[in-house]
Amino acid sequence: MKTGRPKQLLLLQPGERIQLESISSSRSLPYSLVQRAQIVLMAADGASNTEIAQQLRLSNPTVGIWRQRYLDYGIQGLHDGLKPGRPRSISDERVATLVRKTLETKPVSGTHWSVRSIAKITRLSHMTVHRIWQAFGLQPHRQKGFKLSTDPFFFRKTQRYCRFVLNSAAECCCAVC
């Protein structure tokens, strides 16, 4: 015997079902998102919130919240919303300037930027520079200086050289080649 308020019927479009099944079977997405997709799929199959909560080992309110979020916002509602916290104190322009300066320039007294040397020039703290470099995966001390030739016939010369090397290797009679 069912008790409680009747739940709003949850119907899925074929494309939504495919997308939710893909999310629910993913091993690379956050587990919370996978669980939310499983909640929606089970609700669409007609399971009650109590049954879903017991099967997924969640609380009834949790199942109800995510079911309603899906009804209100669709698949986008399953993602975490913005969390409260202190607003960013550094603008996107300053971050872009730092990244551009790191990649495109060199310090006067060295071969690459250090965190502290670029922090002085950009007037940011060295910890801020470090966090930005980590976020963008920048490691100026590991950059290699490869430059492509400006010769207009460079591509043609490279092709000829590659053909020569490949043909030489095919004609070689030693066991190593």
Describe this structure in words.
Among the domains are: 14-78, Orthogonal Bundle (Arc Repressor Mutant, subunit A); 92-142. The protein is elongated, with a radius of gyration of 29 Å. The N and C termini lie far apart (78 Å). It is mainly α and 177 residues long. α2 (31-44) packs across α4 (60-73), α3 (49-56) crosses α4 (60-73) and α6 (115-122) crosses α7 (126-136). 55% of the residues lie in helices and 0% in strands. It contains eight helices and no strands. The chain has helices at residues 14-24, 31-44, 49-56, 60-73, 92-104, 115-122, 126-136, 154-171.
Secondary-structure blueprint of this entry?
Layout: H1 14-24, H2 31-44, H3 49-56, H4 60-73, H5 92-104, H6 115-122, H7 126-136, H8 154-171
Helix pairs in contact: 1-2, 2-3, 2-4, 3-4, 6-7
Class of the domain at 14-78, according to the CATH hierarchy?
A: Mainly Alpha
**Gyration radius, in Å:** 29 Å
Mean pLDDT: 83
CATH topology of the domain at 14-78, by name, is Arc Repressor Mutant, subunit A
Helix content range: 40-55%
- The dominant shape is elongated
The beta-strand count equals: 0
- Tell me the distance between the termini: 78 Å
* N-to-C SSE string, H for helix and E for strand: HHHHHHHH
| Portion in strands | under 5%
Q: Characterize the biggest β-sheet.
A: none
Structural class: mainly alpha
Q: Any idea what the CATH architecture of the domain at 14-78 is?
A: Orthogonal Bundle
* Tally of helical segments: 8
Unreliable stretches covering 5 or more consecutive residues: none
